[in-house]
Amino acid sequence: MAGPSKPAQLGPWGKATAGAAGACFANVLVYPLDLVKTKLQVQVKKSADVEKQEETPSKEVHYKGTWDAISKIKDAEGVAGLYAGMSGALLGVTSSNFAYFYWYSVVRTLYLKYQNSNAHPSTAAELSLGAVAGALGQLFTIPIAVVTTRQQTQSKEDRKGMFETAREVVEGEDGITGLWRGMKASLVLVVNPAITYGAYERLKDIIFPGKNTLKPWEAFLLGALSKSIATIVTQPLIVAKVGLQSKPPAVRNGKPFKSFVEVMEFIVKNEGALSLFKGIGPQLLKGFLVQGILMMTKERVELMFILFMRFLQKLRSQRVGKAAALAAAAKVASPVVAK
Fold first, then answer.
1. 253: left (phi over 0), alpha (psi -120 to 50) or beta
2. Could you tell me if 86 and 152 are in contact, meaning their C-beta atoms sit under 8 angstroms apart?
3. Which residue of 232, 300, 309, 332 sits 20 to 30 Å from the alpha carbon of 283, by its own alpha carbon?
4. By 3-state DSSP, what share of the chain in percent is helix, strand and coil, each rounded to 5?
């Protein structure tokens, strides 16, 4: 008789697939916000004096805020303009989240195994595990982020496909290493998902103690709150990273930034310290919605995987039982041969 099967456990591949699916679905829904926040973050804010001195209007479009950007993009390029570069963005989001959740699951499992304890990791440990997972994921996915940022910040006339944009980056001043522009900033920014998922696990224990399976609205709430905290803390670094990966502003005459510190110095000098938080409105709204939907979807997909695995285990157990019964019946029915 077959012994009882162990409860289905979702491994790193299952968690990574669930996280990637949730991220892709969430970003499809709010992609225009992602496009708008990127455009707001790369534009150089003009002072009132400069605007008065300009006798002829500049060809470069400037946006006053989220709604102004959406309106101007829609008027100039139609609704399709709000989804410019979406294919590359979704590829980047899906791959980066798959890598993050895979490595997070691996390093967290190894940590708990090493600790030999069922207790939840401390807040510091959660942040460290998230940072390690984020760094490993960034190494493989940053070229897609560079290409996507270029596509999002190009005008309709200059916009190219993913491969053409990647070729343009490679043929630039930095060569193939240009695909990894902003790598240092990206590695520093691993604190963003680290804070997000560290806060998620901690808030989960505080708000919903003892719950292993969350309701959709509970997962949404935790995801949205944790991402909002992480975004406010890391917004200046996010702005600097976008500045590094996009084309340099016209006032630099094509000279690219060399580091995220240089980007931040340029912004403070030309626009003021508060501009380090430019685009935070759509960034917060996007993060609130995306992370909420992501975690809500991820929880559902993980549950579906677990139920599917239990179904497979049940089928296997039934087949083993039938095979054992047939073997026993055959043994009883077989004639005894006398010597």
1. left
2. no
3. 300
4. 75, 0, 25
> Alpha carbon of 297 to those of 24, 283, 307: distances in Å?
10, 20, 15
Give the integer Cα–Cα distance in Å for 260 and 263: 5
User: Do residues 130 and 190 touch, judged by C-beta distance below 8 A?
Assistant: yes
Question: What is the spatial distance between Cα 24 and Cα 265, in angstroms, rounded to a whole number?
Answer: 34
71 φ/ψ angles, rounded to the nearest 5 degrees: -65, -45
pLDDT of residue 245: 76
Which ranges of the chain have pLDDT less than 70? 1-10, 45-60, 117-119, 304-306, 308-309, 331-339
Q: Residue 76, Cβ neighbours under 10 Å: how many?
A: 11
Angle at 15 between CA 10 and CA 21, to 5 degrees: 135
Distance CA(66)–CA(60), nearest Å, equals 17
